[in-house]
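Schema walk-through. Below, the input block comes first and the output block second. Nothing else is stored per chain. Lengths vary across the set, and this one has 147 residues.
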Amino acid sequence: MSNLNHLAPRQAGMDRAATKTEALRAPSVASGALLRGGTILLLIAAMAVLAGCGASQRRQVQTFDGQTFRGSAKASGEDRQYFVASVRDPRKSIDGAIQAAEYQAVKHCINLYGTSDIDWEIGPETPKDQLSITGDSLTLTGRCKDI
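--- output ---
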């Protein structure tokens, strides 16, 4: 038994050391849980903000002279540089419709040729009484300049 007695104080010291080590670890485990919880909340908040940004970009509507116009621009014929840009409901605002059709034309030329330079046949500078308004649509025509 005497051989085992000399181990008892050492074991007691090791138990005290283990207790101190566990006591030191306990706050870090708790703070780690707080950090994980805070990180998760931060990620959720960031995702909510980014989701809101994406939604507003998809629904971005251009207005011209205080009005919105549905429009498009398409290549006309075999030469893709020639285009027709049209907008609907030009009677809401003739000035706004002209701006909206020009916007569609510029967007078309930038997408195809990387430039907004246009040679207009019937364009924004054409006198209003000479514009092409048929039915419920205003049409501008021109040619994208190639760089």
